[in-house]
Structures
1.
Amino acid sequence: MRSRGLLIAAILFVGLAGVIYWSNKQKAKEESAPPKDTTPTVISVSQADITKIELKKKDGRDVVLEKSGSDWRITAPQTWAADQDTVNGLLSSLSTLTGDNVIEQKATDLAQYGLAPPAETVVIGLKNGKSKTLLVGDEAPTGGEVYAMAVGDPKVYTMASYNRNAVDKSVNDLRDKRLLTFNQDSLARVELSSKGQDIEFGKNNQGDWQILKPGPYRADGLQVDELVRKLKDAKMDLTGSEDDRKKAAAAFASATPVGTAKVTDASGTQELQVRKDKAGAYYAKSSVVEGVWKSTSELGDGLNKTVDDFRNKKLFDFGFDDPNKIEMHDGAKSYFFTRGGDKWFSSGKELDTVSIQSFIDKLRELTAAKFVDSGFATPALDVTVTSKDGKRTDKASFSKQGADYVARRENETSLYQVDGKTIQDLEAAAAAVKPTAAAKK
């Protein structure tokens, strides 16, 4: 009896050990397996393979996009240039469209999900001639989700509403709204006719803006860049009706010209005219797109300028670079400062960092109040600044005129009127430059 009991116990022990071994092995297998996909994929396609997109709406306002070279164009309902950034966002959304949950594995009644007919159909044309189609239906009762499915896949998914918003684009969303389509990187010339003046800007060998007309002047690069930015940002307002556009064209015809800008890049020249009516509204007409468009006061004010608004009023051009050498003659006083590495010296003595930097800052910010036609006589002050390792030399002379000064840069005919207090501050900063304090023993 006892032997039989031991045998049964042994058999049970072996069986239990087998169960434990299998359980541990299965657990290890499950732990080592990759996690299950919790975000099912509705559509997956390589973005580079997409050559055509058809956005079919329930209300019939369909839009067709087709790739032409490296760019995209709208080909229906009419042919227009497309906003490349908006199209790229659409492509990115369509390339991998994920859902939240699978609602039904093999759906037979699609109408209950708003998928027969769908609220929107997206047909994705591929370069191999095949296509993939996405159907977007009603909102799910849970809120924040919509029903969706891919043609050829019997499953119905829910996906986040923002995915529907990403592909639900109208023709106005996708149109290129720019009034000027120039390439800013290859922009070589800008012309502006405003306030009875014809102004022309070009770039020198260093890529800096210069004023070519009405005379060869130094340009304030920031002001020219701001003009270019406003021209680049000028856009059509597509929210109005066709009747609104007819009214805009009539208003433009009788409005007062504010300015005309021409931009020239590698592809050619484009023109934009801006006018202002008696009520203060601005209208723009471009050589790139048809029609007249309501514009903004920002664009109008940006074009309503004279050449002096774009001239460089700074007396010295070293900008944010540290000069290498400064020489200043102020009556009987003379100053010679030379930089070596990170330190400044005068007559072989190292200079106090704070005092010399204060003087340099005064030079850097020395700005004319306005341009004048005459008044320069015998110089009372001369300043020469050498920078860019000796490659740039700026020299300016200052003549006293009443309480102020008239300045002239070397090799220039332009005259700059400088506030007298500004020169007094510069003289005081030069006199305050001192040797560095000796280190204590």
2.
Amino acid sequence: MNAPLKLNKALADIYRRQMEFLGLKEDDFPVDKNAGSSDIGNVSQALPTIHPHILLKRDINIHTREFADATITDDGKNAIMEGARCLALTAVDLILDKETLEKVKMDFEISQG
């Protein structure tokens, strides 16, 4: 069974800053963010979690043949690299800035109730 997803706002804010640093816009998310299901909710119960989205192509939803076809195009490969860069920069921020890391930990502890 998939547990509900608990997003870590502090961690999401770091990721959002990295998107901005790379010139990406937060509104570049799929229209239907909740298509499908995922076990990331289970992960979010155990450690700080985000579920970032990267724009692959406008007006298509995940878990569709059209989405799968788009992933193997040059645009799809570029989107994956953008997401990887944002995640890598997020990790670097957490490694280099102990105060930021503590905020993420605190946000997680508060969400645990």
3.
Amino acid sequence: MTQEYSLRQEEKELDVIAIGNINVDLTATIDKIPEEDSEVEAKSFSINFGGSAANFAVAASRLGLKTGIIAWVGSDVFGDLSLQDLMKEGVDVSRVKYSDSLPTGSVTVLVSPDGSRRMIAFRGANKLLSADDLDEEYLSRATLVHASNVNINLASEIVAKARKLGIKFSYDPGGLGVQADKNALEKIFSNTDILFCNKVEVHAIVGSDDVEKCAEHLSNLADIVIVKMGKEGALIRSGNTLHKVPAFKVNAVDTTGAGDAFNAGFILGLLKNQPLNVAGLIANATAALKITKAGARQGLPTLSQVKKFLESNGLFLEI
């Protein structure tokens, strides 16, 4: 694999389809984590729309990509509002299904003063997402399908559909994925075009504390391996090529959804035929802008905002 990796092969009705969770985020900003049998007072509280796949879909749509999503929500007010928000953002929700038995998924997010977060997830209707939802006709409309934080069996089904239909597959296993059997994970990775992980996840998958060695190991499986490292930037490995892409310094308010923003920015870069290291800069810029505002989506930038931010850092890109 060379640096000049080509993602777009032909013009499709959709650029990307996200598959995974739609959630409502209940976010509290606190000074410290409460001790057992005690409480702390929240400095602020908000209810926001979230879910890794939904966040990615909104991020991609704001960047100008034609985006769809396959997911489940509950037949409740949070489900209705979640879909209204996605439609407002230009995301095609025609393949989102309603559950009468399970409520819309939710995540309780505790945000510390430095912007770091701890999360408690209730999967709800997200549990119903299965291979039966993978409409081949719909998937074939896209250049790339992106699976995010889905169970290992569903990830296997998604990658099999992508290979059958000849479309690209990107995968962010998340906390749910890295808990799976390592042999099953590596089988999926070997059919993955773009693999996104963070430092904690690659350590768990590979079993090494050396991030570069982790990336090297995984690059023997996936075509492109990205390790997201927050303030330390990102590593991008493809074949024997390694890029270390620095992060941008911003005032971090809330890192919720930063990884999803990064993923969307990186895929945008490849769809714009940018080299891997440039796609990494676009991804870091997208994530940097996101974390300057509270909530998973409030800070997600448009393409023009990303370009302006890059220019303010002396980077003038044709994207």
